[in-house]
């Protein structure tokens, strides 16, 4: 089995708070319907070893523990306070906690930012007190916290056991659902749970760092409605995923879901497709469906990774081998091509009618001999072409289905699988149709740390997550940080001038910026008058030219009639200029027209779009897609957080559905992918070097079999210079 | 709750075989590892009431029942024989069964067509005997049969109970998996199971008709690797789905899965996308994942249908309301817009902070009062805008999570939900995170016939299937059979001439066929010489024209340089003709060139493709998609079996992802959908009327805001006149 990859240095301040030496329960109660009762029960029943300080001015004792009239009256030094009282009381209590030296407070109450402006004001008041008194805040509007290895069970869940799955969930019901699934599963246990609620202080990034550092956690599992600081989260995720798996379910895949989320936690959902791409870029295992969260978390926690995506299937039923093959292919996994020597070894032990082509179908060979399945798994696990092994079918149920006398052999098979799991680094994933009734052989496998699934679909999701994680780790180790690009003073000057004039870069300036950093942009000239255009015509000669109006006042040049294509010779150019001037004057009589940009028409090729936005949650993000219907109708685009690695750029090109077109269709040659990757990387480096660049849009870029041409370039300039400075600091 | 819709007249000959008065078990055995032992145990333990005749020449008794040395020696009149002996013995035994008056035989042995040509020969030999002696064959290579309401349990499964789910599965493991899931579920029972195996005689269509007629079956559930006669299956499915739901999981969604299936049952998989479209057209509920089969079958069996796709969500947790919203939207369902009076009634019973916009989030209102959830369900169920009700969250677990004292109120809530289910036709679907541990309130709901799910995703699949089925039934009732189209003798003559000359229709003939049946095809002329072209030029005048070579020897006109576009005036036409003649002579010096087809260039518009193939499994199928990348790269096409209804044609246009383009993008007007629908219907009727038409390809058709123009038409002629005649008979 795969160990986790290393340790993060301890840097999170949350360890003291989440594994506290003492806890104050503010609003502790003897009323069983109150959270202040539940929390006390949870601490007492689980045997919390630190000091418990119930705070309740109306009680001497709560559940047999001496109570205190106020936080100030507490004699000891609790590190954590659980505040169970209503929202209005919170700011004062937080201040009191701070004065008493309490490091962190969990705020259960709702009625803060998620309910509107009054609540938001209360939340700001609470945060002001917290900052003034040095108290870190979990919540508000949180379902609470547990840390089972330290017996801190403030939710008083009685169906959870200590284990290695850490959970951060913006839904309390989701935690309960996972806890009940785990109880039913029988093997999954939990380390720490936190509900981040409104994240008014501590956010997903902080909690994730804590789980990354926590030695009891082998897999971090997150239900996210919205990130507070997405860029920071990605940074932490990159660190943590290098050590251990991080599983994220992100809600808001649809507009309907985003609306529901915003009324739940006030979360700003952002683009779902972008979020998923950026999380994957940081090595996160994104799950699409809520019922895959626990299976994938369990599988990644136990097995950590596979070397790659080549799966060997051992099956005792042709139909389920077929289903497995469909699901594996749909998930982007491969049926490993078994070597001839592997196939010979399989033929040596199986009936002649067995299929030794992957998926291996034993075709009855194991009916009286189920341990032979373990032998088959051993054989394929030794094949260099195999990255993981997937057992599909009846194992565990042979003694039920065929004859009770097979129990002994079935248990021997289970032992052999356990031995194999210990001796190989290749993950073994087991689907058995007998999983729902948990027969002894499956219980043995599960207890020994081999996940056993009740559905082929769930098993394949786990295999896919293992393969993706293995490939991520391998490329991440090889990854070379692209060297930073030095901004050139004259180009920084372009931005300053534009900022001073309250405009964006003119297209010829944008082209200059790109060209001077090595991007292929066809030559252009700007003619400001008829005579200048005459000179330009002479310079270009007889090649077909494009002409575009240059004006800070005209954003949509085509709509304004400001673009003419395929012009040959001076006469055509002068006529085009006159037409453009006429159209633009009708379009906007006040527009100041600088002149006409003239540039050669590009050769035919494949049109792609490269864009950059500064996302309010994730910061600078690069977008890539094919032009036309692919972006506009099909939203077939890939996103990556800037800066990109070379692998990131290459993976964008592979991700889009339209990649077939880049590979060449209808006899067209493949486009120059390396040049395209260089382009994406250079754009990423330019964005890093010029914080004044707010947005960029190269639409289209025409890619050829050799190289590419940027045909249109638009650069939006950051107007808020304050923001520019802040950004500079935050990336420094 | 919804009753099933009616009864099919009894027509299937399988009732005698699947509910037989007596059974011969050929190869009955006292050896517990043999199928001939298992079958005997199954019949005896389940208390089969008919006569059992074990056949075994070496035993006097099998499991206490008198055994007979041969089929011939049996004294009674069994209707069914279970043949457990090896493949080689089967043909002789089938003949013996026939002579003894046995109506049906189940052949368990493998080693027939699925293993290659020797096996195929044996299968033919067996079928010859079966036909000669009037024995119907189940299998070979089948996992067997049960009919639990008649206590015929030939698989000796001891974990299945009688119920209303009928199963036909080409995978024995899949049946076992469903049986174990049902055992774990606790409520699902089964009526009849059959493994069709190689379908050498009885096929999926026959079994489905039987389940349709079987009064113990409320839902037919099929695992299919391949249909033998897909067209027949669709016909039966249309009959059965009008009465009761039919759930199909079709394997082979990928090439990998198709390969695996073909080595399993020798099935010819066919196009997965086409199969799914055609099944849906016939009202079948297609499930994509194997772990959705049982949940969807249970839900459809219990609830039958929803009036439409508008779902009201009642939730006690914002996070899960968000997940539900995402999944509903992804599944094409709608969050019902609750009426103002409904919202007021909800506000009257819920806390002020509750959200009464769908998804309804009770926000703590039910923490001490779980039966209020039932009240909310009643309120939304009475809203005319609501077609089905989805309860999401903790119901069933309030007494566990909050206080044991809530048990009474929770049980009252369950009773109220049961009452509501009885009084409303709107389906109630319940997801509870407590489902895995089956608390009393959920057990009560489940026992009363309300399905309770452990996953939001599965619940939504059920809601989607209910909504799709309701919409199918509604449109199916409204549906008017398109009147048949009478073939015109002169057009039939075109086919006869082409068949006689061993060629396909010339394009002008294809255009004539379409035009004379009312399809809009721009006028064309065929010029066979320079002077003819002069006359044609005069006729058209100054409009831009297209010219295409007419030759039976040149299939790919563009590749041969046989197409010229945008020609204006006689000079241009004559030059184009000369160029085309030159190019075509180089391309194929032996090509016989009839002349040049000249036609006006079409106005700009949206390019679509209409195609017809005669599929080997499903017969004539119409395909529709947008031109260019949509068909070629994205395979974004819709298929329907011919003949189409008007609804079928309209639904094709709605199905494709590119439908946004038809609705008008970038300021373009929407295309004339009614004209497009008329075109699809007319093509369907032409294909029905001319069985000599083998394939048709209208590529492209250019659709405008008003009408369309068929720009290129290709009609492939059926060469095998024998086949044409056969087809004529089969549709007669």
Automatic annotation (TrEMBL), chains A, B:
Signal peptide: none annotated. One of its GO terms (molecular function) is ATP binding. Residues 17-112 form the CoA-binding domain. This is Acetyl-CoA synthetase. Keywords: ATP-binding, Ligase, Nucleotide-binding. Transmembrane segments: none annotated. The keyword Ligase applies. PANTHER family: 3-HYDROXYPROPIONATE--COA LIGASE [ADP-FORMING], ACETATE--COA LIGASE [ADP-FORMING]. The lineage of its organism: Bacteria, Pseudomonadati, Pseudomonadota, Gammaproteobacteria, Oceanospirillales. Pfam families: ATP-grasp_5 (PF13549), CoA_binding_2 (PF13380), Succ_CoA_lig (PF13607). Coiled coil: none annotated.
